[in-house]
Amino acid sequence: GMVEDGVNGRIVPREAGAFSAAILDQLADRQLLARGARASVELSRKYSVEAQAAALVELYREAIAARARAH
Question: Is pLDDT above 80 for 1?
Answer without folding.
Answer: no
